[in-house]
Each structure stands twice: as C-alpha cells, then as structure tokens.
Amino acid sequence: MRRSSFLIRVIGIGVLLHIYVGSRLIPEWPFGTPAKAAAVVWLVLSCVLIPLGVLARYFVKRQRLADRMAWIGLLVMGYFSSLLVITFVRDLSIASLLTIDSLLPRTVSLDRWRVDSAVGVPLLAMISTAIGFINARRRAKVASVDIPIADLPPELDGLTIVQISDIHVGPTIKRSYVEAIVAEVNRLEADVIAVTGDVVDGSVAQLAEHTRPLGRLKAKYGAFLVTGNHEYYSGAEEWIAEFQRLGLQVLLNDHVVLEHNGAPFVVAGVTDYSAGHFNDAHRSDPAAAVRHAPDDARIRVLLAHQPRSALAAAEAGYTLQLSGHTHGGQFFPWNFFVRFQQPFTAGLARIDDLWIYTSRGTGYWGPPKRLGAPSEITRIRLVADTRVPGTVSGMRKGNRRAQAIRAAG
Question: Is the pLDDT of residue 44 over 80?
Fold first, then answer.
C-alpha cells in the first residue's frame, strides 16, 4: 500500500511538471494549432511513457519487450529532464529581463525573447540529450590518479588499483557494454581490481548472462567487490552468490591481507551504507571490516560504495577509501543535489589522514545520459608523499568537510 501511494504521488508530481512545461512554452510558440496540439499530445505521451519505462521490468514478463519499453521510457525521461531544467532557466531569464525593462525601458525586446526562447528550449533539450546519450553509451575512459601516502613502504610505491563502480547492468546496459569495460580494465594490468557496488539493476535470473564477462577480470592479486544499494534492491544474497561463482571475492565487512614486493597491505570492504535496512546481518561496519588485521600492514584500503562511510573509515584508521554511488551527478543539474546526501560528489578528497576517492561511475543509472560528469575506469596508483607535512593541497577543505560530517552526526 505504501509503495503504491508513493508511486501515485511521484506520477502526480510528474504530471504537474509536464503541465508547467507545456503552459510556459506552447502558448508562446509562433506556430499554428496543429503544431501546438502535437506538442500537447507529446507531453501526454511523455507522462505515460516515463513511468511505463521505469516499471516495465516489474509487470512485463517478456524480457525483450520490457527492455524495449524501458529504453523508450528512459530516453523520454532524459529528454524531459533537460526540457524541464531549460524551461526553468528560461523563466529565470524572463524574470531578469522584466527587471531590466522596468529599470531601463526598451533596452531589451522582451516579446521577441519570449518567442525565440520558447522555440529554442525544445531544441536545446534535444541537443543536450543527444550529447548526453553519446557520452553515456561510449566506453568509460581511464582516469589516472596518483595518491600521495605519507610513510608509504617503498615496496608499495607504485601499487596500482583499478576501480570500476556503478555499472548498473539492466534494461539498457547489457553484455557487450560490460565486455568493453572488462577488456579495458584487463589492459591496464592492475595489481588489484576494486568493484565498488551497484553492478546490477535486476535479478540474477534476468541479468546473469550479461554480468558473466565480469568473471574474466584479471589482476595480480585478484578482483574484490562490495555491495551497493542497488544490489539490495535486486536480491543481494543471490547476487553475492553469483559474483562469487564468477570468481570475484565479495567483502562483507571483511578484509584480506595481500603482499606486494614483500610488504603486506590490507584490502577491506563493507556492505552498502544502507544495507542494514534490508538485512540486519549486513549492517555496514568499517571498524569490523579491519578488525584483527595485522599491525605491520599499515596501508589499509577500504572499498565502500557510498562516500558517507568516510568518517567511520577515518576513525577506524584506514589509509584510503574507494567509493562510487554519486555518478558525479551524472548530468546537470543533479550534480548540485548530490552534496545534500553525500559528503563528496566526485574525485579525490581527504578527511584527517584518510584519502577518499569517489568515482563518477563506469556505467549510468536511469536515462542513458551523461553531461558534465563523464564515466570512468579509475587507475589509482599509490605513491610516496615527499612533501612537507601540512602542505597537502585541499587538506584544510577536507578537514572542514569532516567537521561538517561530524556535526551532521
């Protein structure tokens, strides 16, 4: 009952947003009645296609048909998202021009701007959606990041970890997409591969065939995986068993001790930050994940799907946390909203002695669209920090962020 009530509210909000867009653009168009009527029909179809696309896999038994419905609905969602944002920006520009016109009459041609911008908004939305689609569907590029570690044992200098995250195998991401990622990761010849959650959006029965290429991931010391929130939406226990069957080592609040050039280091992993809501036995615990690790393994890497595990990781004495979840916002303007839920959106940050790297993700979620937040396969290299203590760039900002996280509890 709660789920259906929530769904009705979401659909209702969607209808209101479509009405807003239509009422702000269509009356201003310099076109005849047929064109305006076609626009109204398209908005009505959009109201229907978006929820149908999102929900298709739950009520359509034929997998191929469900996937096609999802493709259509998610493409429409991506387009409408841009249409909504650009319409809102247009309204802000009109409000600004009204202010200018009241102070300096006849400085701007407001009527001309209303008509031209009303025509331009759908075109700009189409262009941004097309560019976002190309960005999302191409294979993620490699982002190389050197992380300076104080007192790094010389034997570990140059240790490489390749991170992939948030692939979201599902209605629009299939086997060929995953195969391209695996081929590129293997080309990098990593010491360790880290898969930081949200691999799937669907059940094992639906997607096992499409995740199979992950079994070909190769690294000197193996490939390690932690669960993300979408694994719990999709049947975490079944997926954990499937990942293990593929040869991935799943870390559930646990760690392994590895040795590189004779020096030990720890790779630990926690369940998703929200996992306890689905299974109390899976409650995320960075401290437990590293418990009983040998004291001489001073370099400790934590795989944690959500960046907000960072405060607990810093308190537990980790050296580096690798996370994902945020997608870097995926496309404008949602990158501005991520920070309300997560302490870090993308890239490298620091809390006290802990480095945190947040991946923008290797796939995408929902609409096949990326703008301003490119997908990535991350090649991380540990290097000795030879700088004078206290001169680490961004340290002050990181400490302020740590204080904010602590204040928020």
Answer: yes
